[in-house]
Amino acid sequence: MIYFKKPIYVTRPLLPDLTKYVVKLEEIWNEKYLTNNGNQHKLLEKELKRHLNVPYLSLFNNGTIALMIAVQSLRLAGEVITTPFTFPATPHVLAWNGIKPVFCDIDITTLNINADIIESMITPQTTAILGVHVFGNPCDVHKIQEIANRYGLRVIYDAAHAFGMKINNRGIGTYGDISMFSFHATKLFHTAEGGALAYNDVYLKDRIDYLKNFGIKNEEEVVMPGINGKMNELQAALGLSVLEYVEDEISKRTVLFDTYKRLLSEVEGITICSNMSCYPDEIVHSYQYLVIKIDKELFGCTRDYVYAQLRNNNVFTRKYFYPLCSDYPCYKHIITASASNLPIANTIVKEVLCLPFYGDLTINDVEVICNMIRSYRNSGFSK
Ligand code: T4K
After folding, report:
1. Residue 213: CB partners within 8 Å, gap ≥ 6?
2. Which pLDDT tens digit goes with each residue over 113-135?
3. Which listed residue, of 112, 207, 268, 345, carries a Cα 20 to 30 Å from 179's Cα?
4. Whose CA is nearest to atom 48 of ligand 1?
């Protein structure tokens, strides 16, 4: 018997009360201002700066274009050291900027770029380190900054999964030169599609805002080859509405996280690997994903078997981030993409599974999912 009559997805978007959004739409209708830094945009930028504890912030139509512009704004070239265990957008923005991604292996616990290896990947062509706070686990920001300072490198963080995260009471977006947040519908805070760059340097503000608006400074001056990266008013209004619900969503996710932890963390062969605090720092987590690692020897069956069985039962988990970016046809020729250079990433990518995690799930749903997973223990290695 299939318990779930309707599919259970890895996530569902956080949707505000429609009437609240309609009120904002009416404001937009009255203004007849649909994009290009209108009132909703200005307000959201201000609210997010406060919420994320960052001094400067620019909004974008999506996180990928934001990251593209982050790379452009720092005039990076040559090689950038990054992780293979991420969404395709991360290395793609380097390729679109004519930069060679250099793949560095990941840390077995945080699943982030291994800061202890970065130094060995630096060449005379290296201009930056592009870390990803994957699944909302923070990179080793202190060690990465120390290496960057020593070699004169820039640091960009793909903070797509790290909305609202803090390290030692500092907004995650204040570490490194620039951090990118994604506001895609699947993210805890979203604008359907959207993103932002956060940074500390006031001189970047004009440059980044010109780059996302065709390089236009004013009606008579185009000062650089920009692109169209602007967030529109409908997106910004949705963001303002969603923002009101974020704290409540985090409270709900906290309860679900604790339920998953209670039912899975003691199971031999399963490790919960999101919301980790691996450094002495004090972390406020993003509650973006609920991720487990399945050790096939100890659990007695593979991650892929668990994925397939759950799918047969209408539970659609995700194998983020399989395959590794280093295995894509466009990158696998790069020397650092070889499996021998990335032993941990190549192991982890076969073990990680993202489980359903969103406020509309019930505790009972989570209990049923966990019981299903526990029942697959010692089902064999056949799949
Ligand atoms: N860097 C990192 C580390 C990232 O993870 C991402 C995006 C980026 C950069 C780029 O940022 P953006 O340019 O996207 O702002 C999803 C998201 O599309 C993507 O934004 C996200 N990472 C990635 C981890 O997940 P898919 O291909 O898995 O999405 P999709 O459509 O299969 O959605 C997953 C599940 O969510 C669906 O099975 C059902 C549910 N869903 C999805 C959507 C879109 C809904 O219930 N409603 C919806 O509207 O990539």
Report:
1. 36, 226, 228, 229, 230
2. 999 999 999 999 999 999 999 99
3. 345
4. 185
